[in-house]
Known about the structure:
Blueprint: H1 19-58, H2 62-111, E1 121-125, H3 130-136, H4 141-150, E2 153-156, E3 161-165, H5 169-185, H6 190-219, H7 226-233, E4 239-240, E5 243-244, H8 245-262, H9 267-279, H10 293-303, H11 308-316, H12 326-340, H13 349-364, E6 369-375, E7 380-385, H14 392-409, E8 417-422
Parallel strand pairs: 7-8
Antiparallel strand pairs: 1-3, 2-3, 4-5, 6-7
Helix pairs in contact: 2-8, 4-6, 5-6, 6-7, 6-8, 8-9, 8-12, 9-11, 9-12, 10-11, 11-12
Amino acid sequence: MAFYAPPAKTGNSNPPPxxxxxxxxxxxxxxxxxxxxxxxxxxxxxxxxxxxRLEKISSLSREEAKEQLLEQAKQYFAADLAKLIEQTRxxxxxxxxxxxxxxxxxxxxxxxxxxxxxYTVSTVTLPNENVKGSIIGKEGRNIASFExxxxxxxxxxxxxxxxxxxxxxxxREIAKRSLEFLIKDSxxxxxxxxxxxxxxxxxxxxxxxxxxxxxxxxxxxxxxxPDLIKTIGRYRFRFSYGQNLGIHTIEETKIGVQIGHExxxxxxxxxxxxxxxxxxxxxxxxxxEEGTHVxxxxxxxxxxxxxxxxxxxxxxxHEDRPFSSVVSRVVWIADAISGSRPGARYEPHEAYVQRLxxxxxxxRTFPEVAEVYAFQAGRDVRVIVRPEMASxxxxxxxxxxxxxxxxxxxxxxxxIKVTAIREVRATDITKAK
Length: 433
């Protein structure tokens, strides 16, 4: 028996819409879009009319109304904003102080160096007691020749020690090296003493160059001009209240560089900090010219075309001028830490007061002077002049006389700036009516 099988369905069973139906739908959509556009236009017009009426009623433009609303909002929230700002400021201040302390303490730990305080005396140890007789010479002729040739005072103490005393550390070093050579040579006569001292003076250029290279290498600075390196070598023989300038410079450079790293400064600024710390006190070893060590240092560095940022750091490290860069600030901070930390420098309080009193008393010995005031540890002296006893023309001469007397009689480190002030006043009183 055969069965009937209907044909299989293919494609979509729904018949496609007619063209007329599609056109009617398209017309309906277009009409609705047109109605929406018309409604939007009516709404925009109503909004514009509403804003115009609002401006007329309030007598304010839109910008003015906006500003008033903002101002009212500021006033309303002013107290809350002030509290929030103050709290935020205090939080940041506390964090900044803590971060600054951490940075400085860490820098001090990295930069601390060991040293022994030195003053105005050098000592030489003798190999045995018999050498004393040769050093003294017949009727003390050898000692007299040695002191005359070196400009240093020699004191023979009990035991096997000789003290060489002088306020000039370079002279002391020449005397020390000369004496050590004479002891080894064993030929100690007035003529031989003079020859050895002259030879040692000629060798000092080589010694200064070697010392300069050592200090530069310790600070991580290289490729400087040879004359500048030799000048830096003088640091080794310069002291300030027992602190050796060379060791102070090395310590300051380590501290400054560490601060720079803690602040994440770029490499070029860290290199400028190295150079600024190394050269900040170079004016202290310039003895051929007059001026403060800051002025002398700036003048010297300009001759060797040192970068302007570094020269400014030297000029600003005593706050004589406002800081011009972060390099100047770091150099100043590092200098303050190294120079003022406990044990770095030593001067008894009584000696400090006595030295200032001596400087002021020397100025008061002149009859034209009414009062004298010493500032900045005695480096700056202000002289108040009696106007009836000294004219303006005589003021310069008086300052020169005071300066000469201070050089002869006062004990001081570095230089003293003397400033004389002459003030004339005229007063009159009206008659009572």
